[in-house]
Structures are given as structure tokens and as C-alpha cells.
């Protein structure tokens, strides 16, 4: 079966390539993937498969039934949204939607899953159970499309024994994949803080509230939460990437806006740090006789790869790709809304290498020159199909 899947995946390489090129040329932003969803529905109906659209305004679900479809079900998931990035690649399939780009490989995920469906259909008489295929919107924007679909009853209705997801990784060589059991990716929360005081002339600091000085001291103080409050064994990041202090050389503004991100690998400490952030801000603001508005937007949870499911996926991947082509991953402080699936049912999320230094395919995710070594499309659909059949056994 494994060799047949491999060969068929390679046989439909050109079809997979065309799917990827179309998707790459027509990216859409999170929760706005209307044309993408229409395209997916057309492709799914062309395969004479059912279409389910009740779980998200954008996004679609379908299923492939093998023998004895009620025996067991598993799910494969691909995200479909692009990013607000102007593509700088000069390629025949360059984005046609100015300022929007598939800079995170979601076009690869979607094309791979569409072709995996074709493979599963080709061999549906050779496996038992049902494979659900989830084309999920809005991975890139809170609250995330995964949460939306789960809240709308997706997992309740399909009841998968496991959910499998993949993601491109440019710093892994094309032809290899990476896996990690247990906690793999961090939770992510967004911090929006406005500091308020009496603005005025910078030469008269005793008559005003120095919101800029408060900002600088506060950011340093907040950084100490990570170094002095959170145990060293818990990977944690608290970073601030945006400060707007709209004053002048001699004007202290009455407001300073600060935006940042908080990430951790522990859900218990995540809640504790939220409280500590508010406490530190209150203490510092009071010492400056100022005021503040604070919003911490609760984002994606920690992504947890079920150890048993990960072991199964790793074993089948070694059989499919070879031992040297399956790597063990380190944790990542980036985030993924696939994490919502991982907190609801046993799940496994793996990385598929897309980089190739010899071809100068080295640009990172979320960059304007991101691209992939498309040779991976020869096997990525087959790997997904093989994983699905393995978990149905």
C-alpha cells in the first residue's frame, strides 16, 4: 500500500503543482477567503464528494469513506488563508492580489490535502473507516478559524479519533519532515496597553506626567516577570514590538500606546502571568500618578502533540520517507491555531521541509520572498494519505 500511495502521489505531481499555483496566485486574508472556498467547493464537487460549509463562513469540510465507514474516523486539516504581505518573488505564479501573499505555505497545505483526497479516493476500497478533510480559514488571525469551526460543532459531528496537520518549514531541507511529541508550539496572547497622563512641555517635567519615561521603565519592569517570576524550566517570551508616543522634541504626549505579545509553553503559568502583568502595570502607573487601559487578548493555546499519535505518525513517516528524512524538532515559541484541535482530541502536527540552499530557496516564513522547493509536492499528498490510512488501521 505504501509504495502504491507513493507512486500515485508522484503520478499526480503536475495536478498538485497546478493546484498550488492557482492558490498562490489568489491568496485571501483571514476570514475573507470567499473565492478560495468557492474554488475548493468546485474541486470537491468535481470529485463527487459531499460538501459541508456550516462550520465557518469561509472554509469547507468533506469526507472520503472507505469500507465499513462507521468503523472509525480521522481528520486531516489544512489552513487556507494568506497574509497581508506584498510578494516580491518574480515567478509565473506570483500573487495577483496586491498586498496579499501565501507567505506561510497555506497554499502548499491546501494543495497537498486536495491531492491527498484524490489518492484516498483511488484506494478507498483498501481501507476501512472515514477520512474527514478540513479546509480551515483564518489560521493567521485571532480568534482563529479552528476555534470557530470547533465552536460550531465540527468535532462533535465528525468525532475523529485523531486530527493530523502539517506545516511548511523552510529551514528543514526539502524531502525531510520534523516531528515532536508533547508540547511543541507556544500559546500566544496579544497585549494592548494605553498609558495616560497629563502631557505638556518637556522642559517642565515636574508639572506633567512623563508618559515616555513611564513607558521605558515599565517595559523593563515587565521583562523581569519572565526572568524573576516564571520558572526557568518553562519557556516564556514577553516582547513589545510597537510603541506610539506621539510627542515631539519638547512635548511629552498625554498618551502612549504599547503593543506586545506574551507566549509560554505552560497553560497554568499563562494565567498567572496575565495577573502579574496587570499588577506590575498598576504599581508602575500609580508611582507616576498616571492611569492606563489594558487589554490582554487571549489567543491560541499551547499546541500539544499527543505522544501516542506522534509515535504512530513518526513510524509511518520513517517507513514512507526513510529514517534519515524524519527529524526530531525543538520547541517553537511561534503559535498555531491547530492547537485548539490538540486540546479537544488526540492530534499531531508535523513540519514538512521546503528549503533548498542549492536552489536559493531559503527565505523564512512570513517574508515577501518566501517560496518552496516544489519537488516536495511529489510526496506530501501521499504522506498525508498514508498517515490517514495508518490511523484508520
Task: Give the CA-CA distance, first to last residue.
Answer: 13 Å
**What are the low-pLDDT stretches, counting only 5+ consecutive residues below 50?**
none
Indicate how many domains the architecture comprises.
Answer: 2
Order of helices and strands: HHHEEHEHHEEEEEHEEEHEEHEHEH
- Tell me the overall shape: elongated
Fourth CATH level, the homologous superfamily of the largest domain: Zn peptidases
CATH class of the largest domain: Alpha Beta
What's the arrangement of strands in the largest beta sheet?
Answer: 1-3-2-4-15-5-14
Q: Please count the beta strands (DSSP E, at least 2 residues each).
A: 15
How would you characterize the largest beta sheet? 7 strands, mixed
Query: Helix segment count?
Result: 11
CATH topology of the largest domain: Aminopeptidase
Global structural class: alpha/beta
Nearest-integer average pLDDT: 97
Which CATH-level-2 architecture of the largest domain?
3-Layer(aba) Sandwich
Rg over C-alpha atoms, rounded to the nearest angstrom:
24 Å
Question: What percent strand?
Answer: 15-25%
Proportion of residues in helical segments: 25-40%
